[in-house]
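FORM 7B: Structural annotation worksheet

SECTION A. Query
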Amino acid sequence: MTEKLLWHKTERGVSIVVNEDADITQWSDYEEEKKDHHTGYTDEEIAEMDKNFRKLRDEELARTDHMMLPDRNPTQELLDYRQALRDAPAHPGWPLEVPSITKLP
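SECTION B. Predicted structure
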């Protein structure tokens, strides 16, 4: 007998095990796809957001790398900007809440 998990729609981490061929309409408070109901996103969607935001951040760091060369004399604004980019993944809600960072020209 094959079984599957059904995840509660509103209670985070609550699941039940049912037969694979069970009619899930009997459990209207449950669904087949596990979601973080605090956010409404699946773990895979959150991982994809993290990947995309990190890619954008890394591209911006690369774009401003040349401004950090010793002969360029970087401004404090640039130093703070790049530090904010590096610190972004440590933001408590990352990647669902991304800190507001003003892009430098």
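SECTION C. Observations
The radius of gyration is 22 Å. Strands lie at 3-8, 15-19, 30-31.

SECTION D. Sign-off
Analyst initials: ____
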